Amino acid sequence: MLIHNLNSLRLGFSTKQADAIKNKGLALFVDEQLNTNYKVEMPLFVAEGPKTLKEFQSLRKQVNSGEKDKEKVANEMAKLRFEWKAFIIKRCNESEFPLREKINLFFQNHFVSTLQSVKVPYWIYKHYETINNHAFGNYKTLVKEIVYSNAMIKYLDNQQNKKDNINENLGRELLELFTLGEGNYTENDIKNTALALAGLNFGEEKGMYRPRLKDNSTKTVFGKSGNFIIDDVIDIIFEQKNTPYFITEKILKWFFYDNPTKELVLKYGKLLKEYNFELQPFFKALFVEECKNTTCGTQIKNPLIYFLQVHNDLELAPNYTFLAFILKNQGMDIYDQPNVKGWKGGKDWLTAQIYSDRNQFIEAVIDGNKKFENRLNKQLEKFNVGEVAFNPKLTLQNTSSAKTILEELTSKMIFETTEDMKNELKDLLKYDFDPSSENANQIILRVYKYLAKCPEFQII
User: Which of 142, 143, 136, 139 shows the shortest CA–CA distance to 30?
Assistant: First the structure.
């Protein structure tokens, strides 16, 4: 069962898909996850919020003129941002297709656009919908659609990019962060890409060129010249050598390895190019092949995986706004990355403070800590999310003996155990442990707490 638990974490956010992977087989499970028409229904709080920048600015003017209470509106907007974060986390946890959500979240971190900067909730929704609609299609098409999204135009200031007054932000990030990677283009390529983006401004549903603001000069990008718009430039970018390898390395880091080897990047980058940047067959080949690898400890769990795994293991009723709040404190603020480069991952997911906070959370869940719970409830009070309380329950398949309990927990939680760990576990759960005793569940929960606080539980 160990490999199925491992792959459930790789392809989702907890171990709850392990049985499905085991029963269906890896290839069929991946195929079902990738072959689904999975739409995003607009949540009510987005439908009722501002749909355009003008609507948002009108609301702000009403606040500044005193027509609306400034503090109340600020709290409402903050609440709305957390509702969106909670909406995304709920999809990750409850979806029948967690692999799809994990791919969506990867692309949101690749094409960063934040609530804090964009302001308009509807534009953020459309950004996410664009990713969801194209994440299994052609990567070049996805790049084009994202560049035209109102959210991306706002986030990278392309509304300020006009002929005779060029703003290079979106052009630079298109080359450096979305397609080629640093060092694979020249400053002249950036300048001419920005010229091709001049005049691309906000539209009703997506960006559109404003003819009076468009630059109609001849642009030269990667040795090709013409009166290009950004679609033409993206076509040229996808002819460049490093394009398939740059995105492949980031995908390998998100799903499997904090430090993928050069050989793996070359292998799968070449495959992506052979598939002509079609993502669905590429993902299927990647997941089926790499999930055969039983090597553990190649990736530090991001906070979302960590907390959703604990919630599912202990059957905690999820309060998704609370989870959004605690993820923010763990450095994984959903749709509000610290900068355009997104979450770095790797060692950034396990600083001394993050590790300490995770352990404090586990202790509070297992042993109870009213001071901790009260502090959380006080911090979340203004968001009207209800009380945060923990009632852990651990359901195991085989509780016939201490040996079977330890085997099941370690295969679910710790993929490699040391001799010292085995000895400490035997001390926690004696060989003559009686599973029917009155306090048996609490004793088993203490074993879970011990394992969850181990450094080994922090990795996949």
Answer: 136
